[in-house]
Amino acid sequence: MCFNQILFIGPAFKTKDKLAQMECNPGMSSKEGVSHVLDDYARHIYPFKYVACLKQEVGILLSLWGYFIGAVKLFYYLLADPEIKIVHFLDEIPEPYQRDHKRRYWTCEFFGKYLLCILIRIVFNKKFVYHINGDGFSPCYAARGAFGKAVIRRLFFLTDKVLCPSEEDLAFFKGKLKCKLVFIVSEGIELQQDKVDHCMDRGLIHLLYFGGWASEMSNKGPGEDDQLKSAQNYLQKQLLDLLSVMEENRGLFQGKIKLLIAGLQPGNGFKEAQQKRLKYQQSFDNKTYTTITNSTDYTTEFTTDLGKKCIWEVIHQKHLEDLVSYVDCSTPSLKSSLFKMANICLMPAGDGRGRTRYLEAMNYGLPIIATAKGSNYDMVLNGINGFLIRGEQKGGVRSAIRHFLLHPTDASLMGAASKELVQKFDIQNVLVKLKFIYSNLLN
């Protein structure tokens, strides 16, 4: 079976990531979620045939126009390339819609996908594989009306095979949607070969937190306030809760814990900040962060609004400068440096694209503190390579951090377990599984 028989379709995607090309770090990318999956496939699959059929737009008319253009491109590609036997559709539920299930997104989007499926399966008689990357499918389906559910059921009735990320999703597709051929295909990652030594500087534990809302806030476009409001409020609350935990346990954490809040995207003044980033890059490589995080001019250029205050202002207001720092991870190189510096990785709940960060943290041998939900069970084994917290309680985060304070050697032991567990997510293993699925479908 050859990949020249496979056509991948999905959201708008650029195969050339300039920052990633400038700073090549194995297993590290500036993309997340389905974009990260596509980026990996583009680099490891040859030939990689891809058509961007979907693009998130604000407004029904723009969305309809986007679907029309995507359908025309798909029609032309299928007509022009007779080698194609299978169309592999990559999809994910955007974070705002995971939190706000009542959006028209699900009816409009899936009706468009259903029409594309008809074009592929009935008009061109090709095999159709639907691949959902990330969590959030079952709760959104449950919130749909009768028409929305009927559209989704009809889509999966025409689908030859369904690929999903976790056992929970597999049970849903087989049970609720009556899909017979469902396979678990995890997001892959290029393994980090170099051994990373996460030494504690004078017993100080570096706790790395990735705030998933930073990129959403900084890249917000006109008319998107309502669309992103639910996700922003939810993720901001998590960050404020985490800062409250640091504030309430100041006496216990003082001199023992340093929380690094990693921002994902630069704000205004990017070019000027890039020059400063290059100036301070050597400091990151030497595993020191004080010259960066203590520079108010530098950090404020990479902060985004948290209500009416930026992150740095909230930290200052709570007098947490000695416990918390806001750092930039807008490029793969900076992101890699942070993973090398950290001892523990704390992931926000409800971020559908967080799987990429989980894999990157595991790839660098870090234990993970995460919420017990969805595909997290496949990546974090409670008590083995980290801790899964029930619900979104501050007490669970506090208990997990206190465990590492009382048992600091567990950070290294659990980190080694993460490094071992990430082997099954090797992108080469994922591609072997895809080949098996394709061959089985063609035969």
Automatic annotation (TrEMBL):
Pfam families: Glycos_transf_1. Keywords: Membrane, Transferase, Transmembrane, Transmembrane helix. The keyword Membrane applies. SUPFAM superfamilies: UDP-Glycosyltransferase/glycogen phosphorylase (SSF53756). InterPro entries: Glyco_trans_1. Residues 313-415 form the Glycosyl transferase family domain. The chain crosses the membrane at residues 58-79. Coiled coil: none annotated. It comes from the Bacteria. Gene3D superfamilies: Glycogen Phosphorylase B. The keyword Cytoplasm does not apply. GO terms for molecular function: glycosyltransferase activity. This is Glycosyltransferase family 4 protein. It comes from Arachidicoccus ginsenosidivorans.
